[in-house]
Amino acid sequence: xxxxxxxxxxxxxxxxxxxxxxxxxxxxxxxxxxxxxxxxxxxxxxxxxxxxxxxxxxxxxxxxxxxxxxxxxxxxxxxxxxxxxxxxxxxxxxxxxxxxxxxxxxxxxxxxxxxxxxxxxxxxxxxxxxxxxxxxxxxxxxxxxxxxxxxxxxxxxxxxxxxxxxxxxxxxxxxxxxxxxxxxxxxxxxxxxxxxxxxxxxxxxxxxxxxxxxxxxxxxxxxxxxxxxxxxxxxxxxxxxxxxxxxxxxxxxxxxxxxxxxxxxxxxxxxxxxxxxxxxxxxxxxxxxxxxxxxx
Length: 296
Prior knowledge:
This protein is of the alpha+beta class. It contains seven helices and twelve strands. The strands form three sheets. It has a seven-stranded antiparallel β-sheet, sandwiched between helices. A three-stranded antiparallel β-sheet has the order 1-2-11. The radius of gyration is 22 Å and the shape is globular. The two termini are about 20 Å apart. Mean pLDDT is about 75; it is low at about 1-20 and about 250-295.
């Protein structure tokens, strides 16, 4: 009996330290979610250059709300380049399993596609993998888990007609038993690049591949901001080509670590959801012990 009382005391103290804050955070999240707008149909994003016209299977979350989900719900670093998020109908940020597509804009200028046919993607993958030790040092300094770039989940492909670049990487974060899928699409525009990143687990690759064509049809630059609207007399040209769009996120020499932060979404999301589940479980245990001893 003394041992059980001691265990109850330990659990009560632990829960008072961990459960209270997490429970309060969860309650705040749930209150906020009640007012979260999942917008159907067509939306012209705040910058006016991009439109999203979704089928009934999907909804759009605006930039401010998407950033709040990424930072406050899934515990990722702030990123003001996020324009919004495309999610399945009925989506909830606190539910596991849903694949989301994060929209970001890189306003770095017109990216030439002249190097499209000459890129050696096998060599690129080897170079990116060789860069990982240095990148992991930087990640550890920032408090993020190390990662292993396993390889291509889908080899890069550039569609010359639509000016869209596709690829997918398999990434393993820390000692996680499940690899993360980063399915990437880049839509070239007149003044920059629209970034679409689908985040999920590797077992969702087929699901993502099936859903992306429908999503991509719905996301486009507005007239005047399209790739074909480029005017060499007045428009800025980016200092890199297609190869850098694929390799940039893990190119240590370029210092572009930001692209990898978005890739941690699924990993961070799993931790947050797991922590919320643990809090609920611990509360049940404490309640059970209190009932056992007749305490309220």
